[in-house]
Each structure stands twice: as C-alpha cells, then as structure tokens.
Amino acid sequence: xxxxxxxxxxGLATLIALxxxxxxxMPAWADAxxxxxxxxxxxxxxxxxxxxxxxxVERPGGANLDVTGGFFLSDGAxxxxxxxxxxxxxxxxxxGATGVDWYMIWTDAAGALDxxxxxxxxxxxxxxxxxxxxxxxxxxxxxDTAATSGQFFAGPNGVVxxxxxxxxxxxxxxxxYAQTFEEQNLSTPVVGLGNLADADRAPDDxxxxxxxxxxxxxxxxxxxxxxxxxxxxxVSSPPAGQAPGSSAPSSNAPRPTLxxxxxxxxxxxxxxxxxxxxxxxxxxxxxxxxxxxxxxxGRTAATGGLRRLEGRGTLRLRVRRALRKGRYxxxxxxxxxxxxxxxxxARIGLAR
Length: 352
Fold this sequence. Notes:
Elements: H1 12-22, E1 23-25, E2 42-43, E3 67-74, E4 80-86, E5 88-89, E6 99-107, E7 113-120, E8 127-135, E9 140-147, E10 150-153, E11 155-156, E12 159-163, E13 172-183, E14 196-202, E15 211-212, E16 258-260, E17 264-266, H2 267-273, E18 275-282, E19 286-294, E20 300-309, E21 312-319, E22 326-335, E23 341-351
Parallel strand pairs: 1-10, 17-23
Antiparallel strand pairs: 2-3, 3-4, 4-12, 5-11, 6-7, 6-13, 7-8, 8-9, 10-12, 13-14, 13-15, 16-18, 18-21, 19-20, 19-22, 20-21, 22-23
C-alpha cells in the first residue's frame, strides 16, 4: 500500500500555537471514556499495526498506533467527540520518525471526507486539529483547516479523544474509520509516496457504524479498575432501510471490488528476477493498492504496491524470502475515491 501525501504542512506552526491553548493532555491515571448508547462504531484486532516507514516492507508497528476500536460521544448540548482506542496509548515517537498521527475519518452529508486528528512530535505535547481528505489520481491529501481541542487517556486500551468543530458535529457521520501514521522525512523520495507511513487502519475493510449526532448522550467514563461489561457493546438502531450491523453507504457509487487474475506462476522465475508479477482487476479506480504474499506457514514471502489501479493492472511483489514450489496466499487491498476499502484473498500456485 502506498503512503498518503499530506497537504497540511503549510502553516503548521500557527496551528500548533492555536492548539496549545486548547490542549488538555490527561495524566495516565485518568479514567478513559467509554462508548455511549450508540456503542462502538467499529472494532479492530490488536496486533495488526505495521511499521510502514520502509516502502513495501511489512514490519510490526508500535502499540500506541495499533487501533482496536472507535466511537463517538455526544454531550447532549451539541458537543461531539471522536474517540480512538489503541492497544497501549503513549506519546512516544519511533526513532527516525518526525511525528505520529491518529485520525478519525468519516463521510459527511455532502459526500466529503472529514477528519479530526491528534499529532505528536518528538518530545512534544499532543496537538489536535480538523480538516478534510482529498483523493487525487496520484495521492491522498490530508489538509488541516484549524485547531480543535482533545485529550489523551494514556495506558493499555487508552483513548485519543478529539472534539469535533460545530460545523462537523451535525447530521450523520457516515462509515467512520480510524487511520494512524508515522511521519517521515524521506531522504530519498519514492515516486508517488509521501511522508506519511501507514501504521494501522480500523476497521480493515470499509467503514464502521454510522453515527447520528444528538441521537445519544455521552456515557460516563469507566470507573478506575472496573472490569469491562460482559457481552457485546450496545448498538444503536440503524436508520430506516438499513440492515442491522451494516454501515450506511457514503454515496451511490458501487462498492469497490478487487480480484486476482493470476493463479499460477514460476517460483524459479520470480526468484531470478526478485519479483513476482500478479494480474489484478478492480471495478472502480483504486489507490493505495497493496499486496502481501504468505507461504503455507503464514510467513510473508513477498510484498508490493500500486499507486493507482484502473480496471486491469499488474501488481509487482518484491520477493523477501526464496520462493519454493507450493501454494501461497495473496491478500490485496485498495481504497476508492470515497475512502472505502476493497479486499480480496487468492491462492497462488507456484511451480518450480
């Protein structure tokens, strides 16, 4: 998967100065907020964050960027917060990175992708902002509009809480999802890749349960040391015509789909060229296309990405370990112009 290119660096010093007055970084002992009557908008397995600082090389990522869930809370007076739960929240920045980011993104009534964001630079305090996502044929741009307020509830199952501005806290927040990044200054730029290295996206596919602003009041923070409630979290009733447990569509656009057209290849040829080429197709234009090939033991054997896929294309997977005769599993993901994710898994047979 390629890395989005931020369009928000201009004026960042001004943004940080504005955010400083609104910043409220909570101590580690503060009680983290819990989902209200709307329940969790989405959940995501722990342990799937990656360190995307090296293009097309998949390595485990940090627990502070490993998203496990997300939800919205209304205070009953028009205020709304986005809450991103992570495996173990800290303000640590990996060595070599220039910062880390937590985003909550959703589709608004006009079909635009809105977001709120928390960001930390090395040795600094969290800064909070909001803006919009713009998807172009070459890149995905994250453009900050202004500062907002927020809080960090550090520790295991910690929560990044970010206040929505008044004009965002209205109507229905459709198909929300969270995205985390490491910020990098690439000394050798890679064509089509920016300085936001993917860490985690939650949920992995599509978006979560849409949230109707004002439909629920905020739940009180969980009591310190209290055990989590048993059973599944409460879920709000879906809008009329929407199936329970489904996400409201962000537009009338078709749901993006991916397929793999190559089902057999030569291990010897791939090893000789240090790359395995696989045919892929999509029903709509996709960006951030990423493929991971795993062997029968679940080990990553090859990885690769495409900046853009329109219809048919060839995914070049760089061989990371010697390929042998046998069957492999290829997982391919991509993102359409509305932020929805397409995923497919295929079996690839390799001959000698």
